[in-house]
Specification:
By secondary structure, the chain is an alpha+beta fold. It is built from three helices and four strands, in the order E-H-E-H-H-E-E. Strands 1-2-4-3 form a four-stranded mixed sheet, covered by helices on one side. Strand 3 (66-69) and strand 4 form a beta hairpin. The two termini are 15 Å apart.
């Protein structure tokens, strides 16, 4: 199962971004999704940096397996999960 989160609509609302990121990670854990696609967009890169900082938090990092940045589109991130 793959989940998708597009942050274009809330790019300038810090609190909503954090809630959306927490929500998609918790949904992935609940549904045992294998992949989450997060789309911060291309822009200046500040939103992508914010998303990466969120994903690097110790309590969040413990939930997923790895992160990939899309080689062809730098406005997308993929978060992969492994379930036993």
């Amino acid at each position: 199962m793959k989940l998708k989160l597009d942050l274009h609509d809330i790019y300038n609302k810090g609190g909503e971004i954090d809630r959306a990121l927490h929500g998609i990670i918790q949904e992935a854990v609940r549904k045992k999704a294998t992949q989450v696609e997060i789309i911060p967009g291309k822009g200046s890169g500040q939103l992508k940096k914010k998303v990466l900082r969120f994903l690097e938090k110790k309590e969040i990092k413990a939930l997923y397996h790895r992160i990939d940045k899309d080689a062809k589109n730098h406005g997308r991130l993929f978060v992969y999960f492994q379930w036993k």
